Amino acid sequence: MNSEVKNNQIHKNDFFSGIPLPDYDQLVNCMHCGLCLPACPTYALTGLEKHSPRGRIRMIKAVADKDLEITPGYIQSLDFCLDCQACVTACPAGVEYGQLVEAAHHQISAFQKKSGKTSFLKTVLLNGLFKKQQRLHLAASLLRIYQKIGLHKIVVKSGFLKIFSTKLHELNILSPKVSGYKPYPKFFQKENSDSTGIKVGVVTGCIQDVFFNNVNHDTIDVLAYNGYQVITPANQQCCGSVFGHNGELDLAKKAVRDLIDLFWNEKVEHIIINSAGCGSYMKHYDTLLHDDAVYKDKAAWFVSRVKDVSEFLADQGFKRPENTLNLKVTYHEPCHLVHGQKISNQPREIIKALPGAEFIELQESDWCCGSAGIYNVTHYEDSMKLLDRKMDKIKKSGAQYVVSGNPGCMIQLVYGSNKFNAGVEVIHPVSLLNMFYKGE
Ligand code: SF4
Ligand code: SF4
Fold this sequence. Notes:
This protein is an alpha/beta fold. It folds into 4 domains: 112 residues, Fumarate Reductase Iron-sulfur Protein, Chain B, domain 2; 55 residues, no CATH class; 128 residues, Rossmann fold, CATH 3.40.50; 119 residues, 3-Layer(aba) Sandwich (Rossmann fold). 54% of the residues lie in helices and 7% in strands. The chain has a 5-stranded mixed beta sheet. The protein has a 4-stranded parallel beta sheet with strand order 7-6-8-9, with helices on both faces. Strand 8, helix 24 and strand 9 form a beta-alpha-beta unit. The longest helix is centred in the N-terminal third of the chain and has 18 residues. The radius of gyration is 22 Å and the shape is globular. Bound molecules: iron/sulfur cluster (2 copies). One iron/sulfur cluster binds next to helix 4 and helix 6.
């Protein structure tokens, strides 16, 4: 068949129907060289071609060409992928694997809905908890009480939840410690600071908001300390990435439109995000809404302004702290920062600017820690193998602090530090910077 005719047929009618990603060219660009294989954690875990980027691309193409059905094996292979995008960095042909896997997830989700096989856990998390931030807050408050009265430890130790579901037991083990919640100021500017007169908006996120409320406050403080007028729009919900990565395209688009409106209405000059996974997703809002007549331009506006906080501070410059704290610090690179956004030096620049901080480079700093969204819940055992490897390198570094700018990585590393007796503190780069500003 003529390839152009074939491309159009597939693009218009089948595989990518209703899915704003990507060209069929992405599938045929893969030349099967295998240079991505050594970078792939799931290939390292199994040694199986079907769990490698090349194998997955072959299968996605076979489904698109209608040479392969959506089988349980196909779904398992795609679900087993961490979406870490290490293969994207390694690929000399520039294959946008991230777009392919996301399109495949949308397709699988549509197929599962049609055949009534949607996973119960995903339904509860996506259609229940993440749909409304108030529900996450309520869940976090209950979790806090549960942890405070000591029930959490007892339930983990007894393995009681395994009677109902192993996944529930794993979710319980992984749940991070919830601290008290402090609301954000709608507008914040430091008195007597050298004002830049620049208005920046802060995205507070969903997981970041309930579990790392302090990181959002540190972000606001650090930006204000550096002379920015900081706007934190109220009523923020998920940025859409949790839905997008799990095949819920309509929910993702709704979340994206709502978030764009909040920042559009404030007319901010920069939009700052401190969660790598969210930032990576937000930088593709324009692709996601490319056929939305109302939101296309607004999405492009948003994308042109959004920056990871470490990227923003390193690019624009930031005040050097006056306080000295003698600490040994290493850095774990969130996949969606280093591979998804190609941000690698900027967080290191921040750490190296801290008086008294000794920066120790981490071996395999860009190897996935196994967190990967809800992967540590859906694939607990494999996630723990990756975490074991990561904690081994962290222990060898001899650092007291491990820095990482993504809530998923932070939860995983805190859990890993306890599980593997690493004895390290896990901290966001912006919190570390604020710690030096305050001299605490
Ligand atoms: S995204 Fe990560 S896990 Fe998935 S194929 Fe690429 S390297 Fe492997
Ligand atoms: S994805 Fe890239 S690196 Fe991997 S096999 Fe295809 S062309 Fe080679």
